[in-house]
Amino acid sequence: MPVVKRRSSLIRSPQFSSLVILMVLLAVFAIADANFLSPLNISNMMAFLPELGIIALGMTLLLTAGEFDLSVGAVFGLAPVVVMLLVQNGGFDIGIALLAGLLLCIAIGAVNGLIVTKIGISSFLVTLSMLLVVRGAALYITQGFPLKSWDQPGFFVTLLAGSFNIGTFRFYTSLWWFIGLSLLAIYVLHYAKLGNWISAIGSNRNAAVARGVPADAVKIWLFILTSVLAGLAGMISAFRISAASPVAGTGYELEVIAMVVVGGTALTGGRGTILGTIVGALMLRSIRNGIVLIGVPGLAYNIFVGVIILAMLILHALLQKNAARS
Amino acid sequence: MEVLRLHNLQKSFGSVRALKSASFTLNEGEVVALLGDNGAGKSTLIKAISGVFPVDRGDIYVRGQKVSIRSTRDAMDLGIETIHQDTSLAPDLSIARNLFLGREPVNLKWLGVFAPLDLAKLRDAASALLKRVGISKKLDADALVSTLSGGERQSIAISRAMQFAAKVIILDEPTNNLGVEETHGVLRFVKEVRDAGHSVLLITHNIHHVFQVADRIIVMRRGEIVAEQTVADTDLLTVESIITGADMSALLREARAK
């Protein structure tokens, strides 16, 4: 009875339990505060969601390959700072400045990837050091001050942070970026040859290498991809608020990793799910938004976020144990 | 008919001469056991053949043609497949995806690594393969490798090597950590592989297993091949004494005398 078997494996899959919990959370918040599902609040959540969500897509692929990147929050801060400095102080065209920002992100990712794969240092240590280097660079070149606000409409600004209305909802183009990149990531991880390689590398690197899979090259490209996505998210955020700050994105690395693992991707590599990551991103965004709405004191809300994440992880562990037993 | 011939292979790591000189021939449809204590040079030898690192000196011939093996990919393309106990399968992938890892059937080939997997072909080929090797009744091609037993994993890895028409299958300690029944299953499978015309180079510590499946025995000690005998012409004690360098039968006689 393959149909029954498939259904039960769907219910046991980590992204399904995450989805159920997301529904429960949304229901609780909606009941506790009528404003939670108001157009304004949904528009607000959808404005913030892509910024961390886009980084989480790259992080999911990287984690599935068995590595992770702590420098994404710092790259999120540095990329727009460099771009805006080039435009404001250097007098460069915005297109050229963006290209320079892109190259910078590629370079940061490549350095991460090369040190991890060719010298063999754990990605935890390499990217932790990179976090300090990149954040330090952002602080130094700005002397610690946020940049002047910069608000000149143009093609690139509309492309990254334009907004449009659907009825009473206001959406940013960043949502399209997130949806498009999500579909691409789902395709790559679950349906393309590359996804097979990524999962195999994270599951058993030696096995993959023995089959001729270029594990180091794949990892280096994933580090580059993650860095570029972090920079893109930083640009989207900076253009949305028309300002770049050297401390933007502080602590994002852990929040992004939380989204990914809450969605059901294994921290140890080999098992990744993009759908789970989207659910995880929605979950953390609505938790942050919802607990403020229902009146949890601002300073206490990290406690709630932490507890809910822990509860999620415990649930995944229990579900997995059950699955292994049956 | 000769499939693989090694001539005077040498390999040093710094001042350590891991492989002083190794020459032997592997014939078609033959199981040759490679024996030796830890540090005898067995793994250096098989790593050289399977393309993990290049040799310093010496030649490798496949079917009489001199070849150079610079990567695991080169070895695979020449029909040499190496199977290590724990490093041959990815546990989080399905059996089907493991069987074709690195050689995935795809549509739209021009997309390179972004080409979509031909999932139907993947599944059908995997099922056909499992059926051919006689383990389809128990195993579903979509099952994750992490749900399989050690013996089943070995069988999957070996059938993958057969699938790609490997001329030479190198088995590195295939029965380590396996239960008695599973060990017999794997050994039976090795015989089937030989009968299907593949040549097997079997690396193991367990001399009893060697006498069950091998046609010939090659013994290494301190980086050199010190003995080469057909199984019919030798016995367990003789082989054991060659491995350790001590005269085991003499020791046994002494022990009995006491």
TrEMBL record, chain B:
Pfam families: ABC_tran (PF00005). Keywords: ATP-binding, Nucleotide-binding. Residues 4-247 form the ABC transporter domain. The keyword Chloroplast does not apply. InterPro entries: AAA+_ATPase, ABC_carbohydrate_import_ATPase, ABC_transporter-like_ATP-bd, P-loop_NTPase. It comes from the Bacteria. SUPFAM superfamilies: P-loop containing nucleoside triphosphate hydrolases. GO terms for molecular function: ATP binding. Coiled coil: none annotated. This is Fructose import ATP-binding protein FrcA.
